[in-house]
Design brief:
The protein is an alpha/beta fold and 319 residues long. It is built from 10 helices and 13 strands. It folds into 2 domains: 171 residues, Thiolase/Chalcone synthase (Peroxisomal Thiolase, Chain A, domain 1); 142 residues, 3-Layer(aba) Sandwich (Peroxisomal Thiolase, Chain A, domain 1). 32% of the residues lie in helices and 27% in strands. Bound molecules: oxa(dethia)-CoA. Its EC number is 2.3.1.180.
Length: 319
């Protein structure tokens, strides 16, 4: 029997404040019509002063642990994907560990922006498969509202805050992560980046994006890596029950699904409700679809994401 990483539980958390396009249009030169037509976004949640990447991650983690039916002290690994950590150091994963009351485990952050959750999942899966850990919390959590330039209408309307988490458990059997593949191409830094950092400007900086170029790369890279992981798993797009994609833009989801000849009904879409929550978007969408009953045990899922770097990746999972 093969030792695999099974998704034993899922959870998510959103800030209390929900902002509509119409509300945004009161302070930004934009309109509900433009945002819906170009992106599919209708709402986003924005963190209040007491809500941070760490608090959202902790709430999502607690929900995932409860749904897995385990005790927090059984977690021996926490991998948290974020581009908006609470502090430059230590890792936000250690704040989550402390908040969960776990005395000892391995805990670290992964920075791969919007594909961070796929990176974190791959690392955790490798550690579980090798026997280095047995039960992992894999979290994607972000407060992008804190790094947005609210004067730049081309970016500030696109993002939201939130967190999603899964409990991964090493088990023998057919269920679990069947294939996972990551990529990076650092030549594209200037298309999507933050113009600050501790080692350069000494400031946190603001997000900058050349959206149209990112869009083009996203459709090409995502469809290619989805095919690659399906091939690795010995499956084809016809075997896929659900695609759980990074939620950047409804038009990217449509174009990618078309390239793989997947019907739109098999794609989980939450971008309308949450906007782009970067590393949180895949586990957040997964949790929504698990809780509303669309995703069932035994289903074949493809998770995928692409973001700044560029970095991108996909994973095929028998849920
Ligand atoms: O998660 C990381 C990966 N990120 C992505 O995948 C994002 C990928 N890119 C996109 O989703 C799209 O490129 C955007 C949604 C960012 C932009 O859509 P677009 O169709 O590529 O529009 P555009 O940037 O070419 O802008 C078209 C027009 C421009 O006006 P002109 O020059 O044609 O007069 C913009 O100034 O829309 C204007 N515009 C806006 N108008 C109203 C840009 N932002 C806004 C806005 N409200 N918020």
């Amino acid at each position: 029997m093969t030792r695999r990483s099974v998704i034993a539980g899922t959870g998510s958390a959103l800030p209390a404040r929900r902002v509509s396009n119409a509300e945004l249009a009161q302070s930004v030169d934009t309109s509900d019509e433009w945002i819906v037509e170009r992106t599919g976004i209708r709402f986003r949640h924005i963190a209040g002063p007491d809500e941070t990447t760490g608090t959202l991650a902790t709430d999502a983690a607690k929900a995932a642990i409860a749904s897995a039916g385990i005790a927090a002290e059984n977690i021996d690994l926490i991998v948290l994907a974020t581009a908006t950590p609470d502090q430059t150091f230590p890792a936000t994963a250690t704040r989550v560990q402390a908040a969960l009351g776990i005395d000892d485990c391995v805990a670290f952050d992964v920075a791969a922006v919007c594909s961070g959750f796929l990176y974190a999942l791959h690392v955790a899966d490798s550690m579980l498969s090798s026997g280095a850990a047995n039960r992992a919390l894999v979290i994607g959590a972000e407060t992008f509202s804190r790094i947005l330039d609210w004067e730049d209408r081309a970016t500030c309307v696109l993002f939201g805050d939130g967190a999603g988490a899964v409990v991964l458990e090493a088990r023998e059997g057919e269920a679990g992560i069947l294939a996972s593949r990551l990529h990076a191409d650092g030549r594209h830094n200037e298309l999507l980046y933050v113009d600050g950092g501790p080692s350069t400007t000494g400031t946190v900086g603001k997000l900058r994006m050349r959206g149209r170029e990112v869009f083009r790369h996203a459709v090409t890279n995502l469809s290619a890596v989805m095919r690659e992981t399906l091939d690795m798993a010995g499956l084809s797009s016809g075997d896929v029950d659900w695609v759980v994609p990074h939620q950047a833009n409804a038009r990217i989801l449509d174009a990618t699904a078309r390239k793989l000849e997947l019907e739109g009904e098999r794609v989980i879409v939450t971008v309308d409700q949450h906007a782009n929550t970067s590393a949180a978007s895949v586990p957040l969408a997964l949790d929504v679809a698990v809780r509303d009953g669309r995703i069932q045990r035994g289903n074949i899922l493809v998770l995928e994401a692409m973001g700044g770097g560029f970095t991108w990746g996909a994973a095929v999972v028998r849920y």
